[in-house]
Structures are given as C-alpha cells and as structure tokens.
Design a protein that fits this description.
mainly alpha
C-alpha cells in the first residue's frame, strides 16, 4: 500500500492503473486551487458573490468526492491481501498520525501568524486531541472511518462473498445512501463528513471491477458533455450527494478514456501521475505555503486577484514537493506522514 492520498496500487505491477494516479493529480490541483480560492475570499480579496460561489461549489462538488471514490477502487484488493488487524494498524499510521501531527503543526503556524491569519487562534485553542479534525484534515478522519467501517463489515461477513458480490453490494449501498443522504442529517463534525462521503467510497469499491476498462472516445465525449452540463446547471448552489456521485462517475469515465494506462504517455499525463504519487505531502502542507505567500503578497501591496491566485496555487504545489523531496532524502517522510 502506498502513502499517496487515498489508496493503494494494484498488486500486479504490470497492470498499474495509471489513470488512478493521474486522476489524483487532477484532484490535488483542485484541492490546492479550492483552498487558495477560499483563502482569497477570507482575506477580503474576493467578494462573497455569485462568481465566488459558482466556482467554489463547482470545485467542492467534485474534488473531495473524487478522492473518496479513488480510495475505494482498489480497496477490495487490499482487503483480500491483508488481515483486518494489519489493515487497521496501517490506517492509524497512514491516516490518523498525519492528521494529529499536522493539526499541531498548522496550529503553531497560525499562532505565529497572529492577526494576519484569516482565522487567528490563541494558545487556549490548542487541539491536544485533534477532534473534530482541524481544518482541511477532516478528509483523513472521514476516510479512516469509512475504511474502518468497511474493514469491519468485511471481517464479519465479506469473506463469504466473492468479489462480484461484494462490489455489487457496495454499488447498491452507495446509491441507496446517496438517495437517503438528505434525510440523514448528522450535524456532528466528527461523524457528519463520514456519513456524507461514504457513498463515494462505496461507489469506488463497486466500480473496482471496471478499473482497467478503457471506454472509446465517443463514450468519453458523452460523459464529458454530461459532466460539463451538470456543472453548468449547478451554478451558485451546493450539490447534493447524489449529484456529486454522478459527477464523479462521469468524470472518472472521461478520465479512463483519456489516460489509457500506457507507459509512454505525454508530458501532461506524466506530470499529473507524478502529482498523484505525491498527493499526500501536497495535501498535508499546501495551505501553509499558500497562506504564507498570500500574507506576504498582500502586505507588499499586491492586490490583483489573478496574480494572487496563480502564485498561491503554484507555491501550494511546488513548496510541498520540495518538502517531500527533502524529507525523503533525510528519511523523515514516514515520520511526517508523507
């Protein structure tokens, strides 16, 4: 199992699902953009109007559901290969430890930033026990709960079913939970994100049997048209879980048609695959880089929204990659949760 954001690699290295890596690359770029976009609004650089909400809801309707979906695609293979106790121990190390460590790191950075932070903190706010999850680290906690729930279900009854039966059950459960979600109001910041995002993770497990499917260009074009139409119809309103689930399935179909898992692909696909492979370090650290640069630029008198957005997104990608390289050279990557 790799420590990239949201999953594992295929057992057979000759059939690596490159589309998963590159899709993670797209997803992590959207994560960095989304936080930079919201950061600018929080700092007063963007008005909270129709434009902001339209872009914001479009990004958030897709990018985090996508990561839960991708996390599920190969999870059944992992369940088959490892004992439940080993899996749970791995989830603690790979998800809960980074969540705790970086909650404390981010708190320290915000404390140091003082009033320049969008949401200033004091020592009294220190998250000794980082629950509810701190800021964007909610994903790690929600994914931990989703995976723990599925591991428990598999240990209890999943071993009696074949792969097809488990995948079919997961797909039915995903659709059922998506339909029921409007009636499953869970205001808890600890449990709510898991309940909301579990359908995407289950849908990924259900779609795992098609992970090597490569649709023809016509099917990809139709899926792309459907995806674009749904984003356009969404407008400045929050997507429902069912809406987001359809978006993810359409987007994944498009991406399977684009990245056909060849070893010799173009520069753009290779770059996206690389970003997918280092998505964990980007996810964990990008806001520190983006927020720090935004503060410096605004203090220096830079107020152009486009310039601020481009530079904060760029540093939010490049900065973490450099940190990851240094951590690997010093053999600190595992300790830091990368």
């Amino acid at each position: 199992m790799t420590n990239t954001l949201g999953g594992s690699t295929p057992h057979d290295p000759t059939r690596r699902a490159y589309a998963i890596d590159s899709a993670k690359g797209v997803g992590i770029l959207l994560v960095v953009f989304g936080h930079a976009w919201r950061g600018l609004m929080g700092a007063g650089g963007l008005p909270d109007g129709v434009l902001f909400r339209t872009v914001d809801y479009a990004v958030y309707a897709f990018h985090m559901p996508l990561f839960f979906f991708l996390s599920g695609l190969l999870f059944l293979d992992v369940l088959r290969r490892y004992k439940g106790r080993t899996l749970l121990r791995g989830r603690v190390v790979r998800l809960l430890w980074p969540m705790a460590l970086w909650s404390w790191v981010f708190f320290g950075l915000k404390l140091a930033a003082g009033s320049d932070a969008n949401t200033p903190v004091t020592l009294a706010d220190f998250p000794l026990i980082p629950l509810p999850p701190y800021e964007h680290l909610w994903f790690l906690w929600a994914l931990f709960l989703c995976q723990t729930l599925v591991i428990g279900a598999y240990v209890i009854c999943g071993k009696r079913l074949n792969n097809g039966g488990i995948q079919a059950a997961a797909a039915v459960a995903a659709v059922g939970l998506a339909l029921l979600n409007p009636f499953l109001s869970v205001p808890s910041l600890i449990w709510g994100p898991m309940v909301e995002h579990l359908p995407y993770f289950l849908a990924g497990i259900g779609a795992g049997r098609f992970v090597y499917w490569r649709p023809r260009a016509f099917i990809g074009l139709c899926a792309g048209f459907g995806f674009a139409l749904m984003i356009a119809l969404l407008g400045p309103q929050k997507a429902s879980v069912l809406w987001s689930l359809v978006l993810v399935l359409l987007g994944w179909t498009v991406w399977q048609a684009l990245d056909r898992s060849g070893d010799h692909s173009g520069l753009m696909l290779r770059l996206l695959r690389y970003l997918g492979e280092v998505s964990m370090v980007i996810y964990l650290t990008h806001t520190a880089f983006s927020a720090a640069l935004r503060i410096v630029l605004i203090k220096a008198g830079v107020d152009g929204v486009t310039v601020l957005l481009v530079l904060t997104v760029l540093i939010g990608v490049v900065g973490p990659i450099v940190v990851g390289m240094i951590a690997r050279q010093l053999r600190f990557a595992r300790v830091l949760g990368f």
